[in-house]
Write a structure and sequence with these properties.
This protein has a domain of 51 residues. The chain is built from two helices and no strands. Helix 1 runs antiparallel to helix 2.
Length: 76
């Protein structure tokens, strides 16, 4: 699940929790919304932590060292 899926879960969970008055037999819609929001936040935290570990920092360029034996002398 990517970052977009996590944000979608948080949004749907928020809608179910705070913007609905549905009553379903045997199903607490507000609790389902809270669970979706919690899973979305946990997924987002996991995604960000994995992204930080995978992010590659460009190494600094090492100075060039010339070997005197292989130096080419050009005359122009």
């Amino acid at each position: 699940m990517g970052l977009g899926g996590c944000i979608l879960m948080i949004a749907v969970g928020g809608i179910l929790t705070f913007a609905t008055d549905w009553d379903a037999n045997g199903l607490n819609v507000h609790l389902v919304g809270l669970i979706l929001m919690a899973v979305g936040v946990i997924g987002m935290a996991a995604y960000v932590s994995v992204y930080k570990r995978r992010r590659v920092v460009a190494p600094t360029q090492a100075p060039m060292v010339e070997d005197p034996e292989h130096r080419h002398h050009h005359t122009y």
